[in-house]
Amino acid sequence: MQRIQYTFITLFLLMASIGSCRKDFLEVVPTGRLIAEKTLDYEQMLNSSELTLYSLAPFYAVLGDELVARDPFFGTRGLKEQRLFRYENDIYNPSDDPTELNALTKALYLFNKVINEVMNSKDGTEAQKTAIRAEALTGRAWIYLHFATLFTRPYNTATASTDLGFPIIREADINKSPYTRSTVKELYDFIVGDLVEAIPALQSNITSRHRASKAVAAALLTKTYLAMGRFEDALAASETAMAAIAANTAQPARLYDYNIELLVGGVLFSTTMSTTGPAQPTLPNNIESIYGRQDLNSTTGGTVNHFALSSSVVALYSPTDLRRRYYNNTNLAYPAGLLRRLGPLLQATGMNLPEIYLMRAECRARANKLYGAGSASEDLLFLRQRRMPAAGAVVPTGLTQAQMVQFVMDERLREFAFNGIRWFDMRRMSVDPLFTGRTFTHILHFADGTTQSYPLRPERFALRIPQRILNDNPGMEDNP
């Protein structure tokens, strides 16, 4: 996988990336290739820890407009983090290795290898091979949704056929010629195509939180359609995801009830909750997770002063909202009204049930299904009753369609602040007629009480391509 970061994947790293797999098929390894023969060999590749560990959570989190910063603490952060917060044109120095892409491209190599080769493997049935390939297709779509969210303009039907996308890599080959960029439409069609093909071959049972199921692929398809503004298609995909979750009889998948789990004896209870936040279940045991991916999020922590939650988002939480237990303002050297995010430091970043419920709620709102059975308010109430006492969980009555969509977006902020999902929402709101005129700004607070604003310019919804990648692909066009 030369050029688009495949350059940075050595044979050693490829060997290490399947360290949890069987090694008996690694007998002779030609340059840039792994040798697999049996269907089980390909199946075991999908158990690799390299497919679950990423470094994108702080990257996404810093881009979200729910964060504010404060000097002198902000000035001690790395240049990349400061540049992201200031929405600068160039995040990396010309010689920097864009480490955030390494895990994505290593995973892409393995997914492509499985996709291209498993159907010709030995000893497996056709059904087994098809299911394994479907998991890899889901994984590849997951990777490319990240590439789209970071390096392409938000999907706009009027311009998607000419806007620059990201190179589409279908091969597991480190020696391929330089890559060129697709269009945004080609990129999203590629993601949709992988998921549409995968869904029928995947099972509803969640046998492992690290592996793809029908619910995972359908949820990812929902998220992709939301990014494209295809709300009717997104609603259908979200219903498929929910139906698969309901049919699951293997690994438990449900929302945590904070009214219970934050109490003594609950799985989220911690004796140091006021300073470290609620406890975080390990990834295999997190019942809200259906696609186990995780990152270390350096923007959170009981001693973190460089970032805090903006006062406008703090105001979205009611006094009884138990999600406030993830925040405090103890010894916070910030103006009044801001809160420090306490955790979790090791954050679940895959597909999780709260996001699926809120995606369906948004889709229902956009279909004008506002109240009653099968409505946006039904999904919102179901989530909110598990985040606060019932009396405070009610959804306001009489909301218009636009107001209900806004309520969902606010609920997404309450649920996902500091988790990096806000960047996904900011991008699509920027091209959504419901949010015309919406702007996004970061505020840096100085010790003397003054502030500096950093507005997000439209061109920076697409990060520029790291110079190392451009150097490996002569002629590749950068984002403006």
If you had to describe this structure to a student in words, what would you say it looks like?
This protein is of the alpha+beta class. The chain has one domain: Alpha Horseshoe (Serine Threonine Protein Phosphatase 5, Tetratricopeptide repeat), CATH 1.25.40.390. Helices cover 40% and strands 7% of the residues. It is built from 18 helices and ten strands. It has helices spanning 11-17, 39-45, 57-63, 79-85, 99-117, 126-151, 184-198, 214-228, 231-247, 258-261, 273-276, 311-314, 353-366, 376-384, 390-393, 401-416, 421-429, 467-472, and strands spanning 67-70, 289-291, 294-296, 307-309, 327-328, 340-341, 346-348, 351-352, 441-445, 451-455. The strands form four sheets. It has a four-stranded mixed beta sheet with strand order 4-1-9-10. Strands 2-8 form a two-stranded antiparallel ribbon. The two termini are 26 Å apart. The relative contact order is 0.15.
Assembly state of the chains shown = single chain
State the separation between the terminal residues, measured CA to CA: 26 Å
Query: What is the number of helices?
Result: 18
Radius of gyration: 22 Å
Number of strands: 10
Low-confidence stretches: 5-32
